Amino acid sequence: MNPATPKTEPSLMKTNCSLRGNMAIVKKRPASRNTRPLWSGLAWLAAVAGLLLLLPLAVQAQYDYTNINGSITITGYSGVGGVVVIPSTITGLPVTSIGDFAFRYNTNLTSVTIPNSVTYMGQFAFGECSMLTTAIIGNGVTSIGYAVFENCDSLTSVTIPASVTSIGDGAFLDSISLTSVTIPSSVTNIGNFAFENSALTSITIPDGVISIGDVAFYNTRLIGSVTIPDSVTSIGEAPFESGAQLTAITVDSGNLFYSNVSGVLFNKNQTTLIEFPGGMVEWGGSYTIPSGVTSIGDDAFGFCNLTNITIPDSVTSIGTAGFLACEILPSVMIPNSVTNIGAGAFAGCDTLTAITVDTGNPAYISVAGVLFNQSQTTLIAYPPSKVGNTYEIPSTVTSIAQQAFSGCESLTSILIPNGVTNIGFEAFAGCTSLTGADFQGNAPSIDTTAYDRDSFESGDPFSGDTNATAYYLPGATGFGTTFGGLPTALWTGQSIVIVNLTADPSQGGTVIGGGTFAVGSSQPISASANSGWMFTDWSDGGAQTHDITVPAGGATYTATFTQQQPQTAVIAVQANPGNGGTVSGGGTYAVGSSQQISAYANSGWTFTGWSDGG
Fold first, then answer.
1. What's the Cα-to-Cα distance from 339 to each of 14, 93, 295, 352, rounded to whole Å?
2. pLDDT tens digit string along 56-75?
3. Strand 370-373 vs strand 378-381: parallel, antiparallel, or unpaired?
4. Backbone CA torsion sign across 92, 98, 103, 108
5. Could you tell me whether strands 390-392 and 370-373 are parallel, antiparallel, or unpaired per DSSP bridges?
6. Going by C-beta distance under 8 Å and a sequence separation of 6 or more, which residues neighbour residue 115?
7. Which of 33, 38, 44 is nearest to 6 (CA)?
8. How far apart are CA 120 and CA 424, in angstroms?
9. 199, 178 in Cβ contact below 8 A?
């Protein structure tokens, strides 16, 4: 055979076989007419093998990685996204770690499978992958670290394997579509804010969990009740603070550290109230703290829907943010036993009009509904709905506490005396109507750090007060072009005083124009009557809207309102003739109101019609 002539493959007998009884029937099928050279088949096999070799290389090329002692840590990803299956080996070495920030901000990733070879996932590894819907975690992972799936907006499903013993701080923070998750019995620790702001509607905490961190399930959508097993020995601040649908927190009777009373979470001997479920009572309900309680925990009543809370005289301490954002609580009475009140205890209580303190309390005092320490050197809390839109801080005050005026949306001006040397974290944050903060002395020092929950975007004392200006006197030190988040301006040498406006009665209408102004300046004030009321007069005799000349020493102007009496008319109904039937519906009614009149014919008579044609 000529060696240059390709050798053909031998013909193959291709058969179809069937069995009939004990005989095999063989049907001959002709071999293919297209015979191929042997070298062509070998080349095809080589090409396929080459592609198979290249595929892992192509996959591997999508990853940035480091080799640490023969183990691969993935540090970045540059693939097209979609459904991603992370390889278990790269360059023949095992992939054991997903590094910090490795996939963060990848908006094309929709699904990820993490191989069993991976034992560690770094912080923010998949953080802010906004299109990620599914995550399958391999059974080599023992810990879901800090903020691994933070802010994964589309994440609805995650498989946590039985190998995981710890769910780290912020692991699923702000994953707002995550509606359910199964925590395996292997887990012993649930970290701080692990599921905060997720969409969980229920959660089962397995027996074996030892620790539940601060606000672990804060602002989820938990419905009904949640049960704490007997294995839990540590519970952080308000772990289940989830709004008005959580009705009870129950504790296994065998737990040695915690208990519950009627769905409220306490320590075992019930001296510390840890958390009051937001939906335990109906909207606008009441609650009396048991008499043996000595401490109200941090954020214990956060976002509750109570209108009345009774604090017994056994309580000595109210924790940080103890009544945070109790939005419909109108007042609170602090007994003489309380000697410690944490920062921001009443921040965000939008309808709070007064904080009252028992006159026998040795540590605190209330002045016109405002909470101070006993010596009145620290202003602790100003009720957001206190009557009046201006306030002059007493001259005894040297310190304004953290979030003392936070959320006082009706406050338009504040006068800060020259004795104030310190302003706390976000002391005036969210005072959205504030136009002027008037400083009579040098710039106080500012605290910009504090507990980091439920605060505004920064720690500036005037954070969010976009309409306000900080005014300071000539010669004052410490003021730049801005102070505490506000632009600054120099007083012009004129005396600055407060003009207060009030409505009498308060429900009669609203008044506009109060604030801090220069003596002798002209300022407009106006009054607007509420429905059913009418404006009567101003205390200075001015028109409903008029200008005032600001007097030395300031002044209070009161708008008087009178309730309108509705105009009435008598409706008389009669039958004609009188023995023909009976009529009803007559009486005295408000003009313009709709009323019904009726006629009923007596036996032998027929109703003909009303005189108005009705």
1. 97, 62, 11, 21
2. 555 677 999 999 999 999 99
3. antiparallel
4. positive
5. unpaired
6. 85, 86, 87, 88, 95, 138, 140
7. 38
8. 40
9. yes
Distance set, CA 96 to CA 77, 79, 92, 142, 376 (Å): 16, 20, 12, 12, 60
> Residue 67 CA to chain centroid, in angstroms?
42
Alpha-carbon torsion (588, 592, 593, 598), positive or negative: positive
CA distance linking residue 439 with residue 403, whole number of Å? 18
Comparing CA positions, the residue from 500, 507, 502 lying closest to residue 529 is 507
Closest CA to 498 of 482, 465, 521: 521
Question: Phi and psi dihedrals of 137, rounded to 5?
Answer: -100, 130
Closest Cα to residue 540, out of 552, 525, 530, 553?
A: 525
Entry pTM: 0.72
Q: Look up tokens 């944050």; give the residue.
A: 429
Distance CA 100, CA 295 (A): 40
Q: From 233, 366, 240, 371, select the one nearest 299 (Cα to Cα).
A: 240
Lowest-confidence pick of 17-26, 238-247, 300-309, 525-534? 17-26
Cis peptide before 551 (omega within 30 of 0): no
pLDDT tens column, 155-179: 998 989 999 999 999 999 999 999 9
Reference 155, options 187, 195, 117, 193; nearest CA is 195
